[in-house]
From TrEMBL:
Protein's name in the database: Import inner membrane translocase subunit Tim44
Native species: Beijerinckia indica subsp. indica (strain ATCC 9039 / DSM 1715 / NCIMB 8712)
PANTHER family with a match to the protein in the record: BLL5807 PROTEIN (PTHR41542:SF1)
Region annotation Disordered: where it falls in the sequence: 42-63, 150-185
One protein family per Pfam: Tim44
Lineage: Bacteria, Pseudomonadati, Pseudomonadota, Alphaproteobacteria, Hyphomicrobiales
Length: 321
């Protein structure tokens, strides 16, 4: 095999690895669902006009699954049982397959080796594409197996709640019926609460943009503060800083609000605009982003029993389903 062919094979292997790793790259709070919603952590919030597709299940949470509500008929043992690819044998088989493919690339035998040394460059690309699709399929299967089962959301959407007198920009009706948790009670949401949610949205984005960990600790629960600190540290390690500006709430409504023994919760769907830029620290060069965009996310706030609207703290972020 010529030197040129070897170089192309190594380059393609590197591009494949880069493409697989690049999917984890995401803006603050975007592309992921993490945090806790108390006793409703594993129960899907009601759909609203702002987020008609509902919310995605949590990918990261410090709440134990047995504190949530599972789908009727599914026991904890069934939810915890690993699939074929999540077991040791399946992972070993997948790892051997991927390893053999990449080594085949490096030594000139192609991803699947047995197709012959006369394989064309187009054939090599086809093999890389097949391997990438296989990897995506398996990783998607693993993610679905690892996520706790959600109890389905109400199909009727948001019920007409009590709109706050005087209104608040961006926010519509009050909370829908939600899903009953363990020993929880409905919580009325007032005009001052809507105002607080909008203010917290801007303040949290600003604190994250400024890498203000103390500010984030005041605005979020300890769990969420730890996730944001982890993301900021990860950006710093890569030599980046995530700058967010021009945050403006466009539309919002409360999916559900309730009271538990340890505090009060409100899950709010919000559509807002912002400008999100990833900047290289050393040069100030914009690596990605920079154009205004609209985002729809479902945020859950928490406050102690009997606290004021100013005491709401961000407890969870979820993406649309």
């Amino acid at each position: 095999m010529s030197l040129r062919q070897k170089f192309l094979n190594i380059l393609l292997a590197g591009l494949l690895a880069f493409g697989l790793a690049g999917e984890a790259y995401a803006r603050a709070g975007g592309g992921g669902s993490f945090g806790s919603r108390g006793g409703r952590t594993f129960s899907a919030p009601s759909m609203t006009q702002t987020a008609p597709r509902g919310a995605s299940p949590f990918e990261r949470s410090m709440t134990s699954p047995n504190q949530g509500i599972f789908r009727p008929g599914m026991g904890a043992g069934m939810g915890a049982r690993p699939g074929f690819f999540s077991g040791g044998f399946g992972r070993g088989l997948l790892g051997g397959f991927l390893g053999a493919g990449l080594f085949g690339l490096l030594f000139g035998h192609g991803l699947f080796g047995g197709l012959g040394s006369g394989m064309s460059f187009l054939g090599l690309l086809v093999q890389i594409g097949l391997l990438f699709l296989l990897f995506k399929l398996v990783m998607g299967f693993l993610r679905n197996r690892q996520q706790p089962a959600y109890q389905g959301a109400d199909q009727g959407g948001q019920a007409p709640g009590n709109q706050p007198q005087g209104g608040n920009f961006g926010f519509g009706g009050g909370p829908g019926p939600g899903r009953a948790g363990v020993n929880d009670q409905p919580l009325p949401i007032e005009t001052a609460d809507y105002t607080a949610f909008e203010q917290k949205l801007a303040a949290i984005q600003s604190s994250f943009s400024n890498e203000d960990l103390n500010g984030l600790r005041l605005l979020t629960t300890p769990e969420m503060a730890s996730y944001f600190a982890e993301e900021i540290a990860g950006n710093a390690t890569k030599g980046f800083v995530n700058k967010i500006s021009d945050v403006k709430l466009l539309q919002g409504d409360v999916a559900e609000a309730w009271r538990e023994a340890n505090g009060e919760y409100a899950t709010v769907a919000m559509r807002f605009s912002l400008t999100d830029r990833m900047i290289e620290r050393a040069s100030g060069r914009i690596v990605s982003g920079g154009t205004p965009e609209q985002v729809t996310e479902i945020w859950t706030f928490f406050r102690p029993l009997g606290a004021t609207p100013a005491d709401w703290k961000l407890a969870a972020i979820q993406q649309q389903g």
